[in-house]
Protein: RWD domain-containing protein
Organism: Spodoptera exigua
Amino acid sequence: MPWVDEIEALASIYEQEFSIQSNTARSYGIIIKEKMHEVYLYWTMPGDYPSQSPPSYELSAPWMDRKTKEKLHQCLDDLYLNNKGECVIFQWVERKGMFMSKPGKIGVNRKLTRKNQNVAPLNAVHNGPEITHGEVIVDRKSIFQGHAARVNSVDDVKAVLATLKLNRKIQNAKHNIVAYRIEQRTAKGHKLVQEFDEDGEAHSGGRMLHLLQVHDLKNTVVVVTRWFGGIQIGPDGHITNAAKQAIQQAGLLNK
């Protein structure tokens, strides 16, 4: 059910801020923080959410004046109406700027997309192989980003994963799918080690490994992070595309 996936995504990404008021009543809460300000959002999902009815919600922000709070309510309602039939709580929470804007500045920027947000810094290095982060792919509020690196051992693969997960958003993503191929020298010659981990995203890791095999890539690891946006997409190829894009951006296809 879409609302279950939405709750799981919020609980994963906002582990410290998310709270369950009542699973039976489908009531939850979250603390939205920005600098010195906090907004408490509480909501209950009716039985026909999101297909027919919106969630009922309450806001608690003692620092916010009445007019600002009224505008914020209007913005949240507009977001629901503009996305009727879809899960909307995740969108509300991700639009932190609406909650923290100064009086008179609140509004929904309908041109805003996650493509313009830096999910992970480019070419990050942290005591291990250099990691190249691909561009973000957005579809129906789910977000996909590939990461690629040249590696020489399974320990290098572990170092890449550890470095990526220093980023809290990556650590708390719904899926971090991994595939790698490493050519190792042995006393008898060369040995090819190739593995994948789908991290709960069925068939994705095998496809990523197949991508490495088709291009005969060795000593390469590719990771695709997926942040779930509340809508089931199905097999649209975004994971493979994100993986290939990261590999190309890292220049590994030409080496």
Summary: The radius of gyration is 21 Å.
